[in-house]
Amino acid sequence: MDERKRDSMIVYLRHRMDDFGIGPDDLASFLATATEGADTGRYRSAGGDTWSGEGEVPQWLKQATSAGQSIGHFEFSGRTRARPAKQTDADRKNDPFAGSPLAGSSHPKP
After folding, report:
1. What is the rounded CA–CA span in Å between residue 110 and residue 90?
2. Three-state SS for 43?
3. What does the pLDDT look like over 65-95, one tens digit per residue?
4. Cβ distance 6 to 91 under 8 Å?
5. Where are the alpha helices (DSSP H) in the chain?
6. In this predicted structure, which of 28-32, 49-53, 82-86 has the lowest mean pLDDT?
7. Residues 6 or more apart from 59 whose CB is under 8 A from it?
8. Are 43 and 61 in contact (CB under 8 A)?
């Protein structure tokens, strides 16, 4: 990512944090507690189910691989990922990523 895109992303993220009332201290606190209780699983489903890779393969993973999905798709680095916050009706007039893949498919252009 070039420096201009990186700077634009930082501005966008700060704006979104302001929209949701999230401060740097909130973020630091969450990251500190998220890693303390980190699951030691090796595979994670979209619903948050995990499996260490040892013992019997869980049903959610059996179903996914039977449907043709690669087991590697569910592998993760071990760092706990936060679940996305529930969307609110935020003002998107100044969203620099509106209409782009970064904005997601549910956000129309301003």
Report:
1. 12
2. strand
3. 999 988 888 887 654 444 545 555 666 666 7
4. no
5. 3-20, 24-36, 59-66
6. 82-86
7. none
8. yes
